[in-house]
From TrEMBL:
This is PRA1 family protein. GO terms for cellular component: cytoskeleton; endoplasmic reticulum membrane; plasma membrane. Belongs to the PRA1 family. One of its GO terms (biological process) is negative regulation of transport. The keyword Transmembrane applies. It comes from the Eukaryota. It is found in: Cell membrane; Cytoplasm, Cytoskeleton; Endoplasmic reticulum membrane; Membrane. Pfam families: PRA1. Its main location: membrane. Keywords: Acetylation, Cell membrane, Cytoplasm, Cytoskeleton, Endoplasmic reticulum, Membrane, Transmembrane, Transmembrane helix. The chain crosses the membrane at residues 40-61, 67-85, 97-113, 119-139.
Amino acid sequence: MEVQVAPLRAWDDFFPGSDRFARPDFKDISKWNNRVVSNLLYYQTNYLMVAAAVVSIVGFLSPLNMLIGGTVVVLVFLGFVWVSHNKDILRKLKKQYPTSFVVIIMLSSYFLISYLGDVMVFMIGITLPLLLMFVHASLRLRNIKNKLENKMEGIGLKKTPMGIILDALEQQEDNINKLADYINKVKE
């Protein structure tokens, strides 16, 4: 199946009034994780635009350090994904605590970048866009269109770049399993 780029959502949908934002339920981690994954899939092109703007500004101010920082983060991410697919203990950690897994990747990247170059480039150019995405995805309430798009992504009708990243982090298997259970219940 070929990868499709998700459409750019209207900015008034991306940043609506305060009535469409709410604090997540910190007691129900599964529900919070579902909200974050859903919003990451639905607003992925908007997040890419915001991240590209921040990376462009930082890259313009410090191009070599930004290139080093980006390369280190990508290599560390790919390394951790590869190791987690080959080691059961890391696979379980990634599956149960996806945020911790991302924090481990970012901390590892931070220490490598502090050894190689400018830490502020890492903090502003790489961590800030990720933090902005996570905060928005955590606070933004989902709507019907969001849920429908995510179901299509989850059952494999569409494949997007964020879907591929979330698959690497093993955050979409639960959605597929839930949908399969639902379809089996309907058949019965």
